[in-house]
Amino acid sequence: METFSFAFSVTGPIFLTLIIGYWLAKIGLLRRAFVDDSSRLVFLITLPILLFINIFTAEAELRRELPLLAAGLIGTLVTIPLAWLAARPLTRGDRSAFIQGAFRGNLGIIGLAWAANAYGNSGLAQAALLMAVVTIVYNLAAVILFSVYSQDIKFSWRKLARDIAQNPLIIAIVLALICKQLALALPQILLQTGEYLASITLPVALLCIGASLDFSLLRRSSLAALGAVGFKLVLVPAVMLTAGWLFQLPAQSMGVLLLLACTPSATVSFIMARAMGGNSQLAANVVALSTLLSIITASLGLALLEVFFQ
Question: Which residues 6+ apart lie within 8 Å of 221 measured at CB?
Fold first, then answer.
């Protein structure tokens, strides 16, 4: 019973914050302009600061996390072609939405929040490093999907490299690793200011995600949406945990790997599906349904992991 209490203490507050954001939007206290501006503030400023501070001040070193990063990389590289195969029976317009929703998780907000709740700053630092590696793979996969399914929009490898190099989250992680490697001593006033800004990141971001959800879409969920959600919340964590087991990761690293694998489908999958001329309604259904069900799968997975790794 204690293991389930621990698991729910990790995922429950995040889910409730999303629901509060959804409710505040419904009653008009969170308006679209505020959500848009806050989302940009989080992505461009406060989330990069959060990642920098936690990696820079973490006791763990990059080389000690290489097995975790390798497990996450291999697991992601396995799940993407599996998602493509699973989408083959669908019509062409549904495939891109299914694939994006099936493998691409909301690592930057929900994944980091879960890791922080479960393991504190050390877990948050591990999750940030893993997120950086997996995000690069996500972008590579997105380019391939664009080239296969989009007839109007073409992306080049040069543009991909530029987008990755300009991504503020990846820049923050790389700078933190460089500063940490050089053993730089940043002024305390800068670190404390950074902590102030970082502290607003996850609550504001979760409220914004909640405000953007449309659970009315669940009434129109199809078998394809259910299949994508099942793939994302069950198969992806199973593949990731298998990779972690092969690398003999310790308990906390396995927990971080599981929590990031169990994240609901990222809202960007809806944007990508629409840009590729795919079924954006299906993509929206996958995002909403996986957000609702991820609380169950992540809690059960974390509880079982606690049992087997005690």
Answer: 285, 289
pLDDT in tens, 173-211: 889 888 888 888 888 999 899 999 999 988 998 898 888
How many Cβ atoms sit within 10 Å of the Cβ of residue 1? 6
**3-class DSSP string for 92-127:** HHHHHHHHHHHHCECHHHHHHHHHHHHHHHHHHHHH
What is the rounded distance in angstroms from the CA atom of residue 119 to the CA atom of residue 35? Answer: 29
- Residues in CB range of 116: below 8 A, 6 or more apart: 123, 124, 127, 202
How many domains, in total, are found in the chain?
A: 1
Length of the chain, in residues = 310
Which two three-digit tokens encode residue 152? 């109007």
- Looking up residue 20, the CATH number of its domain turns out to be 1.20.1530.20
Q: What is the pLDDT of residues 30-60, one digit of tens each?
A: 898 998 898 889 888 998 898 898 888 877 6
Specify whether the CB–CB gap between 169 and 138 falls below 8 A.
no
Q: Are 30 and 211 in contact (CB under 8 A)?
A: yes
Residue 289 neighbours by CB under 8 Å, 6+ apart: 218, 221, 225, 226, 229
Beta bridge partners of 105: 265
* Helix (H) or strand (E) segment spanning residue 91: none
Domain ranges, residue 147: 2-308
Token digits for 288?
A: 């909403």
Place of tokens 């102030």: 196
Among 43, 52, 53, 45, residue whose Cα is nearest residue 192: 53
Q: Burial letters for 110-149: b for 16+ Cβ neighbours within 10 Å, e otherwise?
A: bbbbbbbbbbebbbbbbbbbbbbbbbbbbbbbbbebbeeb
